[in-house]
Amino acid sequence: MNSILSKLALPLRYPSIGGTPASALAHNLSKLNLARTGSLVNFRAFQYAANVVFNANIQNPEGLNWKEDLRSAIDNHHFRDAWTLYQDHGVDGKGGFSSEDYDVLLQYFDKRKSQQVFEDIAKSGLEYTEENYSHLFKNILKYKDNKGALELWERLKNDSKVKPTLTHYNIVMGAICKSTNNISQLDAMYAQLLADGYEPDDNTFGVLVTSRLEANKVEEAKGLLVEMEKRGIKTGPVAHNVFISRYVYHDDMQSALKMFDRLTASGIKPSIRTFNSLLNGYVKQNDITSMEKIFNEDLKKYEVSPDVVTINILIKGYMQNGDLDSAMKVYNSLPELGLRPATATFNTLITGFGNAQEMAKVKEIFSQMRKSRTRPNIQTFTNLITQFGRYGNLNQAIHYYQDLEKYNLTPDEAVFTSLIQTCYTLQKPEMAKKVIFEQLNSLGKCTSQTLGMMVDTYTESGRLEDAKKAVEEVKSYVPADQWASLREVVAKKLAKPSEQPASE
């Protein structure tokens, strides 16, 4: 790269070409390079070289159009590069951003970064806007930080320049419902939003209904739905969806369908979440015919487009019914529906093909997942380890375990349980012991289940003395307070049949 730049950095005579200022031409060329490479790193390097070639003033930030670079990075989802640019030019209120500029950053940066951006708004001399608060609320709650949302609510209430909106009320009430479900506090906020002159919407009642159902106050929840209907609120189906989801969870499809009929009779259009709940209910009942009717007929009838969750539910339904071809047909329909597969999509396929003992297909699906740049999660690897371990392929299971580090994922108890189970099935006690030490190293503890299976792997191979030695090795690495909870299980596993207490 240095040699290329040195060749390019020749002093040229012409500050402009064809009447176009050199800095503008360089910027246009660099934007073209960004479109071709999709990388802001290349984008910045190319821009630097172009400015040198055309003798632009590269010391001038305006000459580099860094704000446009920042927006291009965000548009192309290069958030790390965008943050670097912001740190170079925009922190502490520098950079001459407008409230709208800050709004874009609040939407796309992660929680910690967006909180810094929020503080920079005040440093810039601008006043906060309703949108600034709304976007920071949503960003905080994306990370399930309900406490942080409540702290921001207190700040908003004390901000003399911004009045809380209905959206703010709904967001904070949702955070309270999820964190403490303090019904008295929710009712007080509901009374306050009415006093502030706001008309509640379906999101407001969705939170209130959820709070009652979570507290098992079903009649109160139904009363709130009646109040909503009396108010003539038809903004959306959120409150009805809460009921439908609850009925589906309790396998009460009859009540779920009655609530759906009530929703449509009220003149409210069902959402894709409404249909996803019903689809999920039919899949739980293995009612594939009704599942297909909703997808093929009802979605069209109500002009509702499927989302990737819809597709995942259909795949799960076909998979558990053994119809692998239909599951793949639905998966392959994603592009024509304008949808991208999610992590859950691939996880469902991996589980389905694994249960069908189609292990070559499992590998193919995981390969497609990587090619699509869909990030696997810990559930992905638990599925892979479990499926290959179940059929005795310990080497492949260990291979996927080692892949966790590539994706910066920490194995959980389920991963180690799957590995130990495989060692037990294949009667490989030494490998089981290694897995226990991996578990101790990774999680700082082992469980009675994994340690018990390690002992069983030794004893059922006729190696009782080796089992005792392995236990002593493990014990030396386990804190005393943890060992107290493991001692009884281990002692029972190591006892000879004649030494075990008689069953009552």
From TrEMBL:
Organism: Basidiobolus meristosporus CBS 931.73
Alphabetized NCBIfam families for the sequence: PPR
Keyword Repeat (UniProt): yes
Pfam families xref list: PPR_2, PPR_3
Keywords: Repeat
UniProt PPR repeat ranges: 201-235, 236-270, 271-306, 307-341, 342-376, 377-411
InterPro entries cross-referenced by the UniProt entry: PPR-containing_protein (IPR050667), PPR_rpt (IPR002885), TPR-like_helical_dom_sf (IPR011990)
Protein's UniProt name: TPR-like protein
Gene3D superfamilies noted in UniProt: Tetratricopeptide repeat domain (1.25.40.10)
